[in-house]
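Help needed: design a sequence for this.
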């Protein structure tokens, strides 16, 4: 195949992938691109060496993730004050790293095709899920833009996530892609490929889709439950002003004004991550303004603010924290962020990457918190105790971290975030789509407060009850169901991903010792119908 054709097919896969995970809710079903995104890539893998397959897969992945994480340039250059050229270079390095996982998938795919083609249709989805799971945990983890997130709007389809997490939806997407590719290739090529009839993969794929649909329908009905009314404040504070001391009073005044619109009917009020542009516990004058707002609201207030602590030797460090205030203004509890953002809240391997200290403006010496911590408050005339877990910003993209909050016994879940760093890009929508999956995985309602959007409420089945536009002042109020039966995923964690990893490793290792090419030939013909040898 000509190099220009290879580039074109890889570009098609990259574009389809990035469009599918953009998660924009504007009437266009972008997620449908996911179901055919890998067809062009599979086309350019047939008949090549494993090394060529890896390079072509990497190219497709690099293009896909360039379109998925382009917003890194905005965050670093516009808000982090990193030079534009350096920001672009670092974003391309990140896209190149993420592309490696697609390259490894492509290499494994062609190895299976060449050595045991009858297993490709089931092994390829297992391999993809294994690599997504690896990406979730390797080098602190970056599971941004997993394939399954493309389907966050398809409520019936994604209910399977309460068993498999988001990885099960990724598995299904890749299964469809591979089965369609085998069907198309079988239809367009001549003997001996016809001996590898794709009826089994197609039949299993259709059965899987039908089974997932039926399961989804059975999960959509939620039993009547106790409900909580949550008021969410989206103050839309400009990132350029957020930490400017001159804007502190103006910022608090905006929160006060918006809070008054939701406080009369709210059982709980949420402000976003780092809502307080000061150290809440250390600055009594500004703290008194916040406690005054809480007392007037007459409802518990949860919000984000840095917390200052000191090591045993007196060295200060920061925690990215979520506070809960009682209606009296007293601190009821605090959760400290466990999973920090590399290069945003800390610099990994600082002894080696010491030069990056000058590239990122505003980095504090943050430390991770101790682990899952639930916050609780009393509500109603009978003083019912209500508990919730908080995921701060980046943490909500990690399925297992949120699962552990649910497992602690939360009645509902909360995520607070800034997201102003993303600018006017697809990133806030991508981030919000991931919260939908966390709700489904644990069958637990979610409330989300974001500084600039998207803020909203999500029910235990992933239905978006309310959502706000980005970069607009908003105060919304709504009710969510409390409590939920523990799901398979909540109780047992990533057993599905581990099963996929075991299956993928077994099949790839097995092909080293067992070589079963297409029946009737040692190499599969990929010539179009009617094309003859010279």
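Sure. Designed sequence:
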């Amino acid at each position: 195949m000509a190099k220009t054709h290879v580039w074109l097919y890889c570009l098609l896969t990259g574009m389809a992938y990035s469009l599918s995970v953009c998660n924009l809710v504007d009437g266009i079903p972008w997620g449908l691109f996911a179901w055919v995104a890998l067809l062009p890539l599979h086309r350019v893998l047939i008949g090549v060496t494993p090394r060529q397959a890896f390079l072509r897969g990497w190219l497709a992945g690099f293009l896909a993730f360039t379109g998925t994480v382009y917003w890194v340039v905005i965050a670093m250059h516009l808000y982090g004050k990193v030079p534009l050229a350096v920001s672009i270079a670092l974003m391309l390095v990140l896209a190149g790293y993420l592309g490696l996982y697609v390259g490894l998938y492509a290499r494994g795919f062609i190895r299976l095709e060449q050595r045991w083609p009858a297993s490709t249709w089931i092994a390829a989805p297992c391999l993809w899920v294994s690599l997504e799971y690896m990406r979730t945990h390797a080098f602190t983890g970056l599971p941004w833009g997993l394939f399954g997130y493309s389907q966050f709007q398809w409520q019936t389809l994604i209910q399977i996530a309460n068993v498999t997490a988001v990885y099960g939806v990724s598995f299904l997407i890749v299964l469809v892609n591979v089965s369609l590719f085998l069907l198309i290739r079988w239809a367009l090529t001549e003997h001996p490929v016809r001996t590898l009839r794709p009826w089994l993969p197609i039949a299993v794929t259709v059965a899987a889709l039908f089974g997932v649909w039926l399961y989804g329908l059975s999960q959509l009905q939620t039993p009547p439950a106790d409900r909580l009314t949550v008021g969410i404040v989206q103050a839309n504070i400009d990132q350029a002003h957020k930490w400017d001391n001159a804007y502190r009073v103006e910022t608090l005044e905006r929160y006060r004004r918006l809070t008054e619109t939701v406080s009369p009917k709210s059982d709980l009020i949420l402000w976003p991550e780092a809502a307080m542009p000061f150290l809440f516990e250390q600055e009594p004058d500004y703290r008194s303004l916040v406690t005054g707002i809480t007392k007037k609201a007459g409802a518990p207030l949860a919000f984000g603010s840095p917390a200052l602590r000191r090591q045993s030797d007196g060295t200060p460090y920061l925690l990215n924290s979520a506070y809960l205030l009682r209606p009296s203004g007293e601190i009821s509890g605090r959760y400290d962020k466990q999973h920090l953002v590399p290069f945003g809240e800390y610099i990994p391997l600082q002894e080696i990457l010491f030069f990056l200290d000058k590239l990122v403006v505003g980095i504090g010496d943050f430390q991770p918190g101790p682990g899952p911590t639930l916050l609780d408050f009393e509500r109603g005339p009978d003083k019912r105790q209500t508990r919730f877990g908080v995921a701060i910003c980046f943490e909500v993209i990690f399925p297992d971290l949120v699962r552990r909050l649910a497992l602690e016994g939360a009645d509902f879940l909360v995520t607070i975030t800034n997201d102003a760093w993303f600018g006017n890009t697809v990133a806030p929508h991508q981030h919000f789509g991931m919260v939908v999956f966390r709700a489904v995985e644990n069958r637990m309602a979610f409330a989300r407060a974001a500084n600039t959007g998207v803020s909203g409420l999500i029910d235990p089945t992933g239905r978006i009850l309310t959502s706000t536009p980005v970069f607009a002042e908003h105060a919304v109020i709504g009710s969510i169901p409390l409590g939920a039966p523990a799901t398979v995923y909540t109780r047992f964690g990533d057993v599905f991903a581990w099963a996929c990893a075991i299956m993928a490793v077994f099949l790839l290792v097995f092909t080293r010792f067992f070589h079963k090419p297409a029946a009737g030939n040692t190499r599969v013909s990929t010539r179009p119908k009617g094309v003859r040898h010279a």
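The radius of gyration is 25 Å.
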